[in-house]
């Protein structure tokens, strides 16, 4: 079977083998398999040619601007926040989504390759290194304390729940 991809098509590849290998090393061992029933281990221990095929797939995704629908499939599972707490209380759980390992690998490759062009808002707390929900809660409390100490009444709409 002859490939319809010419040598000139491969010269503008976004990802090379080292990008894929770096992404594979960023995946964590022992994580649950997604709907594809695939985890990191089979990719790590597979024939080295698999890395070349993954590279070809990821470059095709980029060049065609089409991400396969299965990359977005996942299973959301509740995970207890406090295993010693009330396991019957719905507020004691946080959702995690188990995604296909190939889509995680693609995300790692994208993040590494284009990290310098992504911009973040100063008001973004999640998905940033060294920042998280506790920082957002702290900032919100500081703002409320500031306005309260200056006699300004705040009206907060919606419901907030601290975990």
Could you explain the architecture of this structure?
This protein is mainly alpha-helical. It folds into two domains: 7-73 and 99-118, no CATH class; 121-163, no CATH class. The chain has helices at 17-26, 40-44, 49-64, 101-114, 133-149; strands at 75-80, 93-98. A two-stranded antiparallel ribbon has the order 1-2. Helix 1 (17-26) packs across helix 3 and helix 1 (17-26) crosses helix 4. Mean pLDDT is 82; it is low at 1-10.
Topology:
Layout: H1 17-26, H2 40-44, H3 49-64, E1 75-80, E2 93-98, H4 101-114, H5 133-149
Antiparallel strand pairs: 1-2
Helix pairs in contact: 1-3, 1-4
Describe what is shown at a glance.
With about 160 residues, this protein is mainly α. The chain is built from 5 helices and 2 strands; from the N terminus they run H-H-H-E-E-H-H.
Task: Report the span from N to C terminus.
Answer: 57 Å
Structural class estimated from helices and strands:
mainly alpha
How large, in whole angstroms, is the Cα Rg?
A: 22 Å
Whole-number average pLDDT?
82
Low-confidence stretches: 1-10
Helix count equals 5
Tell me the strand percentage band. 5-15%
User: Which series of helices and strands comes N to C?
Assistant: HHHEEHH
| Secondary structure: number of strands | 2
What does the main sheet amount to?
Answer: 2 strands, antiparallel
The number of domains is 2
Strand order of the largest sheet: 1-2
Principal-axis shape equals extended
Q: Estimate percent helicity.
A: 25-40%
Any key phrases for this structure?
single chain, 163 residues, mainly alpha, 2 strands, 38% helix, disordered N terminus
